[in-house]
Design a protein that fits this description.
- The structure holds two protein chains of two kinds.
- By secondary structure, chain A is mainly α.
- In chain A, 39% of the residues lie in helices and 5% in strands.
- Chain A contains seven helices and four strands; from the N terminus they run αααββααββαα.
- In chain A, strand 1 and strand 2 form a beta hairpin.
- The longest helix of chain A is centred in the last third of the chain and has 30 residues.
- Chain A starts with a helix and ends with a helix.
- Chain B is mainly alpha-helical.
- Chain B is built from 16 helices and two strands.
- Chain B has a two-stranded antiparallel sheet.
- The longest helix of chain B is centred in the middle third of the chain and has 32 residues.
- The relative contact order of chain B is 0.12.
- Classes of the chains: A mainly alpha, B mainly alpha.
Amino acid sequence: MLKPFLAASALTAALALAVPALAQEEAPSPPHQAWSFEGIFGTYDLAAAQRGFQIYKEVCSNCHAVKHLYYRDTEDLGYTEDQIKAFAAQFKVTDGPNDEGQMFERPARPSDRFVAPFPNDQAARVANNGALPPDLSLIVKAREGGPDYVYGILTGFVNPPAGVKVPDGMYYNEYFPGHFIKMPPPLSDGQVTYTDGTKATVPQMAHDVVTFLSWAAEPNLDQRHQMGLKVFLFLIVAAGLFYAAKRKIWARVH
Amino acid sequence: MTVPATTHRGPQSRILRWIDYRLPVVSFLEHELTGYPTPKNLSYWWNFGSLAGIILVIMIVSGIVLAMHYTPNADLAFDSVERIMRDVNYGWLIRYIHMNGASMFFLIVYIHLFRGLYYGSYKYPRELLWMLGVVILILMIATAFMGYVLPWGQMSYWAATVITNLFSAVPVVGQKIVSLLWGGFTVGNPTLNRFFSLHYLLPFIIVAVVGLHLIALHQHGSNNPLGIDHRGPQDTIPFHPYYTIKDLFGLSVFLLLFAFFVFYDPNAFVSADNYIPANPMVTPNHIVPEWYLLPYYAILRSITFDFLGIPSKLLGVIMSLGSLVLLFFVPWLDTSRVRSARFRPIYRLISWLLPLDVIALGYVGSQPPAGFVVTLGQIATFYYYFHFLVLMPLVGKLERPRPLPISIGEAVLGTGTAAERT
């Protein structure tokens, strides 16, 4: 079954003689948002990332895993070791085998990966009307448009244009390729209570959770930007010195 | 440093003299660096050869470190790359260097190749030097393609599927070749394993061919912007220190560009789809290779018709590979005896049209093949072959080159004929 399908799709792709312009390309590209981590001096806004982490915990994590994150990673967001221990301990992981050869359950530790909401993909599909909620650890890097796209999806649930019939179990989203998405609108105004008093509007929550997810996808961005500046300074000085030396050495030739 | 660069005294220390008497490495280096006469008029276009050598070393070193942490297994490869990005000390730095280094390597080599075409560096007596360069380019393409498969993302998987399937166009044994490449009936774990093995092997073969490329280079020395042979010491300077310092300056400027991508836009050259783990059940909308392979991909897809009984798919593969094989014949396709385009008004024009044509092919390769794009691809493919097979031999015969300067030294000092100052 699979083999001819693969060969056929590969051939189609290779020769691409008849690839139809898919309806999926109709979605407009989401508007650009201002992100704290843009540009060469960009860093993650930790307050926004912490609020975003709260959105992830209270909303997204009901369906979406972040399997590349460890609990210990959240130290980067400004949490203390005790806070992380306490947070991790709310989850159960299977460990073992113990001395009796039995697997056992224990509270999660900071050195564990984030516990996924479902034990496997099939369980996730069954619980979600057949749709598989994607892992979010790389979602910002894995979509064209990055943070703007994820923000666009989270804020893009609108009423369908007149005459468009949305299939059962699907929702209309302005920015989703093909417009019909199986994820129900996840955010609503006042859904969470921010501990820092920020008003929990949908755009605010979307902005915060996208900041968190951007950090989850690229946790070394702050360090990368800082090191880049040093490397640039070094190279500019080196280029200047080499140029001066070159002028001096070549003076003998001209 | 007080020793004038041109003298040959042999090693200074007793230990080095003892070694050099038995294994003449020191004299060899001295002969090839300080004793190697280089035309005094090389422009910055001549920086790209040494840059290519340096980036090759950067790729090998970063690649060896990555291989210490990478797991070539279809179930683990994607996660092992993420582990490098997150948990290996400076893993993100090493991976971004390697990833963007591939693009930098091709950028440099394409400029190097263009310089060779523009200044006729492939002409007598440098034909084999040129052909070894083409061999390096082909090895680089194979290496880069297999490297792109290793992270086992969606684009990795589907690029591997599409490209390996091309071999099925070969008559009679095509399907057998494909099974051999796959190590099975689809792209899978055996494919990943052999690609990893070959991706580690090929760079060392490239190093060996680069060695031959350098031996051939040092046999007759560098060509130069005037394309005339040097006629003695007044035309040349020793490679070291003149070109070592010029190359170092060029290197630091190049590293600024490289560092920009590594630190500030590390994913500029990759498709977002490659951060989705490989999934044989879901085909990406739009399968595109890396930018440096787009022109070949465009040629492949431009052949939409059967010709002389050759099916379009096979013909596409032939034309695509042919665009590289053609380069081997360039020394004989160019019928002009004048090397540098500076003295060849018509060749100068068409040698700038060629990169524009290749950029057009690159654009075509990046777009979904429909409507105008297909036509543009066919025109650009036709022009590519037309350039090498018709224009190059014809222009060489018909064009009247401008008078050449008598010697490099005179041209550099500004006392040559009027022609070379244009």
